[in-house]
Amino acid sequence: MSLRGRKIKGALAPYALIAPTVVLVLVFIYGVVNGVLQGFGIMPFLGKTEFTLQYYLEAFGRADFTASLGFSLYISAVSSALAVVGGIVLSAALTRLSASRALQAVGISIPLMTAHTLVVLFVVSLFAGTGLVPRALYALGLIDGIGAFPSVVGDPSGWGIVLVYLWKEIPFVAFCTIAIMANVSDRYGEAALTLGASALRSFFSVTLPLCKGALVKAFLIVFAFSFGSYEVPFLLGPTLPKAIPVLAYLEFQNPDILNRSYAMAINGIMVLICTVLAIVYFIVLQRERRR
Amino acid sequence: MAISEARKGNDGADGAAASELPRAMTRRRFVAVASTAAATMLLGSALAGCSNASDGEAASGGDAAGEVDYANWDAVLEAAKGQTVSWYGWGGSEPRNTWITTVLAPALKEKYDVTLNLVGMDINDILTKLSGEMQAGVEAGSIDYIWINGENFYSTKENGYLWGPFTHYLPNFNDYIDSESNEVLYDFGSPVEGYEAPYGKAQMQMWVDSAKVKSTPKNPDEFLAFCQEHQGRVTYPEPGDFAGTAFISCLIAGVVGKDEFEKLSSMENPTTESVKAVIEPGLEYLRSLNPFLWKGGATFPADAATVDTMYADGELVMNMGYGAPEALVKNGTLPETTRSFIFETGTVGNSNFMAIAKNATNKAAALVAINEVISPEMQLSQYEELANISVLDMGKLSEADRAAFEDVPLGVTQLPIDELLDHRIVEAAGPVIPIIEQLWLDEVIGK
Amino acid sequence: MGGKRAAKLFVALHLVCVLVPLAVVAVWAFTSSWPWPELLPQTFSDRGIVELFVTSRDLGEVLAVSVGISLAVAALSTVVAAMAARALVSYRFFGKELFRFSTVLPFLIPATVFAMGVQVVFIHAGLANTVFGVVLAHTIVALPYAITIMSEVTAAAGEKLEQQARVSGAGPVRALFEVQIPLLLPGLLSAASLSYITSFSQYFLTLLVGGGTVKTFALVMFPYLASGDRTIASAYGVLFMAVTLGVFFLFELLLKRFASAKTEYFTD
Question: What Gene3D superfamilies has UniProt attached to this entry (chain B) (predicted)?
């Protein structure tokens, strides 16, 4: 092969490599755009092609929309913040113990592979008004009887929802950081220790900064996920306010097809917020790579 | 996200890895890995191929459009032979699914060589799928017939997603069903017009554990007292869930009176104002209940399933649903001392139906299956196994069939059919239901 | 060294939090009633087992289809991701940053939004209700995870080894298979198992794209999880975990077998 031929081949190689991903991502974007357009009243299959902001205005104009948005943001912020903190501790603890692969499989992989609805089942059987935890408290004489324990189901504070996400996402955050931590503890950590830094100080001054990029990314993924999925808040959330994805889901399910536009408008608002998150994520990714 | 287990490798012994790897990965091992990967891909594409094949089969096995004379039952039976019919319906009831797969499906196979494929999922998800297919103009749809009623029927029929009228093709419909009764003519107030065949009758009932609760309320006033007595131990599913909507309907009807409430079942072009004018005293009553309900009426369980588990565990003292919880007592979920009751002011009831999708691939088999479901034999079996109230007109049955129905012993939780039907209130019309639900959200919860 | 005890305590606590709910659900699979205030179940039932192994006759088929789909997704997304990662790590090309950005989108935009929008598109394309369509949709959702993992691993492994191998006379194909792939193997398996998990637990997307025609285990299980029938729900839940774990350990086994212990990819 001539040198020039090889050069051209070299220039084309990356495009060949990314082609399948590009196709898949385009399908994804096409699907999302298609959905978002329905929110603007554009549904060619129903012969509707006129652009309108009506559904967005209606969505924003709903009496309960602001409360719902607030509730969703609050749940996501609390879940992702606690998940990151818990994940750091878990990851550090596992690293500290040089946990075996089997231990990691139980502590990290099992939660990763459990479906969210199944976790709802866990949480309900333990923390409902008559769950096992209140029963144990009752047996110990710590509570008076049924109703004395704040059931996870429908609680306005949403602590059941947060609990489900924590069960799933603390191990996820640990999954994202444990390799880095293990690596750091092998190299820098020991060096820092021999230089006289305490274990805790070296953790904060060496390990944590190195994990920063991974942690921010994990935070955003958890945030976006808990912000966008409807199953958990549907099953455990209070009647009012409903989480944003629950609103969208209920409207989407409405047998009247025109309500889809409305559902998609709510989705559009979610997409907007998620896109802002995506841009933040990307900036973090860029910074981390430059480092 | 730094999932990299390999960072370690990078920072670490590159040289060591380089010398180790080629040795570790012998040709034999490589072949093993590669063939595993290849097998995975093959399995994937084999599955894809297999699904395409079955699609094709379904298409060729389906009715060639317009060639079947549906009015000729023998022709329908002939066309249905060998077809696989997909029945979409709510999939969350294990006793019902078991009945369908162990009683109905074998009967269909044996008698008519029709294979029944039960697809159990939430009705909303089914409609999402149906409307998606209809929007896309799919001609050989994946849904043949659907377990449906109420506003879902109303909107799918309005949107032109249903095939029909078809009920006059069905021999058992013509022979055993009173086609002039309101329950067959109307579904939640909207005219059926032959687009769906009745499947079963349902009526709201409440139940308690008689070992723990001595007296049950007979009307809304007594129910209020009942809630006060068991403060924080009574609630209902959030309206929007069908059981929740039906239960508040019973209470509203008890407050405003049966005749007044039934105005809602034939209300045309309902508005928030017109509905509110009828149910206002009921809303007032519901507000007065709140302080004595679970969590002070500030929040309600999202669905009937949650209420079911709360009741089973003892967090609630009363539960409710369409039909008696006989199956739950039989399988040990609820104690033998469970007893049902209804209000003397009545409880709402409705029929549920089976409708055929406009783009159903196997219409002949769907007709055969629906006809079988409304046969005396299958209706009797449903009554025995599931405590389902039959849709057949007892006056049209043969002496022996009628006796068979009467001979079925009542379970401990079952109320006599006469008692139920005497206290039956017609549900509000499909378009009225969402208005009631919205009014509840705006004016009852937390107030 | 200090802190070890605290670490032990925390890990123990974490394991309790993970395992106790699993144990409770496992017990529920055989329980029919467990009322307040009992700490142990009161009546037992074989209903869950009967439902799984007797009544639902096609469960074996459903499981085979589900596992097949998820394996195909795992293989597809891992290969596609490995290619993309290679491009991102070793090449400069026009639009690279845009490409990098677009690969993280499915992470951050809810899968439900994608599912609701893509349903009609797939039907038009004839992909709806086919196994291939489901595999494609799942792959899209699983891909960002796989790409993230593969990018890290590929960057870490570098090209050095492959170049070395080629300089010493190996052809490009041989260099790829004998040097690069073994080096990436832990990452490949990690990406594959995460993709597998993502695919296996998809409900809403499977429903809209495969719509009941393609019956996966998640599709059969979810109505029961939402039904309030805890005996049956738990029985399905236990089987779900067993199958997922089974495949996970298969991946682990492959890793153990084919990766050299001395590559230090293990944190043993």
Answer: Periplasmic binding protein-like II
